[in-house]
């Protein structure tokens, strides 16, 4: 997955969340709704997260250096992990606190219709943002289910934006129910309960993101499809046979490949070098993200 599709989805989400955050805070000030205030903070957290993802993408494009010979591709993982922390602390924990505060103090709602209008408009805008994320994800998802895509993706941006947008939409619906029920019944506890549900939702999403991105930070192998393509590319060479293969993503779009391949026992040094060069070319043609390749020649032995 290139960063281009992810960047388009990030920008769409950033624009939507910035406008939505302003309208939510205005509505929260007018109505006194805890759900609206929590949703306003949620949108600010989301907008900040999208800025972080853009900064991570920019940082990852720095050229490799002697101190970082494999480049800075993992910057995208670092910034995405910070996103999960921001979503948990600013979005989730604050919403839980605000819900608890509302239950404790029972502050009345004012002009709840304003909040409802803002929430409906926000749902429409968030739907467009989610539509963009889904469209960009479908371009690279293939036949994977959505769960497989989020768990198996080696690029953090689209899964992060997908989960954020889904969380934002569900949170808006929860806020709409909370404000609506409080307006209908005259009981502000429903608004507080909606806020608590938003907090729990955001904390759950943040934990899922942290778990998935932690795996990327530790270092994940190539996907099964890419490993199969690399194996086929090596074995397609005349006289070559894959003995051992290890792969590692040093960045979302940068794959390290280390392989031991069988070479004919009578091959000269020049022939060995030529076969290694040809194997590297086939691997890069089959998996373009395989930018760092180390191949060790060996003589196949029985039982090895």
How would you characterize the overall build of this protein?
The chain is mostly helical. The protein is 70% helix and 10% strand. The chain contains 9 helices and 3 strands; from the N terminus they run ααααααααββαβ. The protein has helices at 3-31, 34-59, 75-105, 112-141, 146-152, 157-185, 189-218, 224-235, 269-286, and strands at 241-251, 254-262, 290-298. It has a 3-stranded mixed beta sheet. β1 and β2 (254-262) form a beta hairpin. The longest helix has 31 residues, at 75-105. The mean pLDDT is 85.
What are the key terms here?
single chain, 304 residues, mainly alpha, three-stranded mixed sheet, 3 strands, elongated
Q: In sequence order, what are the helices and strands, one letter per element? A: HHHHHHHHEEHE
Widest sheet: strand order?
1-2-3
Number of H- or I-type helical stretches:
9
Number of strands: 3
Radius of gyration computed on alpha carbons: 25 Å
pLDDT averaged residue by residue: 85
Strand proportion, as a percent range, falls in 5-15%
Largest sheet, in brief, is: 3 strands, mixed
Report, as a whole number of angstroms, the end-to-end distance.
35 Å
Tell me the overall shape. Answer: elongated
Uncertain spans: none
Instruction: Please estimate the helix content.
Output: 55-70%
Structural class: mainly alpha
Topology of this structure?
Elements: H1 3-31, H2 34-59, H3 75-105, H4 112-141, H5 146-152, H6 157-185, H7 189-218, H8 224-235, E1 241-251, E2 254-262, H9 269-286, E3 290-298
Parallel strand pairs: 2-3
Antiparallel strand pairs: 1-2
Helix pairs in contact: 1-2, 1-4, 1-6, 2-3, 2-6, 2-7, 3-7, 4-6, 6-7, 8-9
């Amino acid at each position: 997955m290139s960063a281009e599709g992810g960047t388009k989805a990030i920008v769409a989400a950033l624009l939507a969340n910035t406008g939505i955050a302003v309208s939510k805070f205005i509505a929260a000030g007018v109505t006194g709704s805890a759900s609206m205030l929590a949703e306003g903070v949620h949108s600010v957290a989301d907008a900040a997260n999208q800025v972080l993802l853009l900064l991570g993408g920019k940082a990852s494009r720095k050229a490799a250096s002697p101190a970082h010979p494999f480049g800075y591709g993992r910057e995208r993982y670092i910034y995405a992990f910070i996103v999960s922390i921001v979503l948990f602390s600013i979005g989730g924990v604050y919403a839980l606190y605000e819900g608890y505060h509302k239950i404790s103090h029972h502050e009345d709602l004012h002009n709840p219709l304003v909040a409802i209008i803002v929430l409906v408009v926000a749902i429409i805008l968030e739907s467009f943002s989610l539509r963009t994320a889904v469209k960009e994800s479908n371009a690279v998802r293939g036949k994977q289910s959505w769960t497989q895509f989020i768990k198996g993706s080696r690029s953090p941006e689209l899964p992060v934006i997908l989960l954020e947008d889904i969380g934002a939409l569900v949170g808006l619906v929860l806020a709409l129910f909370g404000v609506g029920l409080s307006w209908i019944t005259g009981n502000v506890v429903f608004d507080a309960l909606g806020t608590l549900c938003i907090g729990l939702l955001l904390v759950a999403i943040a934990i899922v993101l942290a778990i998935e991105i932690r795996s990327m930070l530790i270092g994940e192998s190539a996907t099964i499809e890419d490993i199969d393509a690399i194996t086929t590319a090596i074995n397609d060479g005349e006289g070559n046979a894959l003995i051992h293969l290890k792969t590692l993503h040093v960045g979302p779009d940068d794959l390290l490949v280390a392989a031991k391949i069988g070479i004919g026992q009578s091959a000269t040094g020049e022939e060995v070098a030529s076969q290694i060069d040809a194997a590297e070319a086939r691997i890069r043609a089959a998996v373009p993200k395989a930018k760092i390749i180390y191949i060790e020649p060996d003589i196949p032995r029985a039982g090895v």
